[in-house]
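hey so u asked for the seq, here:
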Amino acid sequence: MGPHKIRQMMKSEREMAIRRFRKQRNQNRLAKPGIHDCVIVLDHLKPTFNVGKIFRSAEAFGAKEIHLVDIAFFDPAPGMGAFKWVPAFFHNTFLACYSTLVQNKYTPFILEPGKGEPISSIKLPKKSAFIFGHEEFGLSFEPDLYPDIQSLTIPQFGKSQSLNVSVAASIILYEYTCQHGEMNKHQPIVQGN
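ran it, structure tokens below
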């Protein structure tokens, strides 16, 4: 297969992803907040698999909403329909998103490998905002300019000291729900023999 054919296929895939996004974004306008007060902020992530997967985890763990910074569209297919159920708010800049979070009294956190408090040793506030940066380039802003943003880390024991952003989001959402006791209240009770 030649380079021209590959480019045509990639263009076709992107067009299908945009159509899926537009359809689900219209449905997203009716989405209701999740049962928890935590929010996810996605700062300049690539419009490929991770954004949809993070919506899937946010829906599974009952996150209130997701804020997207400078993400014009993404492919919702990896989210298995979750984009329709988790309210999404789109911001052009991180400052605009940050202003909304502070105005609504959220405590903002960034996750950095090997820096900050381990997630299992800090009591997360009910109104927590977890900020995730671009998969390659990280955050689009300088965290030192926002002194109330706190650093967290997910303890890791391997050599790479790096997690995929969608995996990291799932871990922090799990820790948050464990700390705030809503995990078992909404699960069906399964009785053994």
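The longest strand covers residues 128-133. Residues 188-193 have pLDDT under 50 and may be disordered.
lmk if thats what u needed
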